Amino acid sequence: MTKIIPAVLCIFMASGSAAAGLESLASGSAASFQKILAQPQTHLQVKSYVPVSGQVSLSGSAYVPNGSSYVTVTLTGFAYFKDSSGRITSHPAYIHVMHGFWANQAWVSNYVYVTAYPSFFQDGASIGAFPVSGSVHVSGWITGNWIRLTGTGTLAGTVAGKN
Description:
Blueprint: H1 4-15, H2 18-38, E1 47-63, E2 70-79, E3 88-90, E4 93-102, E5 107-116, E6 119-122, E7 125-129, E8 132-143, E9 146-162
Helix pairs in contact: 1-2
């Protein structure tokens, strides 16, 4: 505030009167603003939001202790994501999720909710990491004290791409 008042006073004093100072300030500002608008804004890049998806196959094994019915298994797999045009792609993304379930019967069937953050590329240039998510149906048999779960599903998300 203390710097603004002397600056305004200098403008008024240099122009000869307060009214003339305000008019010259307004016309100068309008001309400067018009010059700024006339310049091309090359540093601004408009982004478009593009849906991406990919298939993931998960698998994992776990030990089922005698007398226990709750089991936790680590499911892992790889997925590759892209948009419908093929311009936006990801490298193969490693998917890792922990899943706990009740193993009360010999056959186990569950849905696992998965979220991953793969890095995406548009026309070969990196555009960042974006979330993809979805449910994957996994199932398997308990054999002895072991269970192996496998399943396939689709993960989908939205990527902010460059136009």
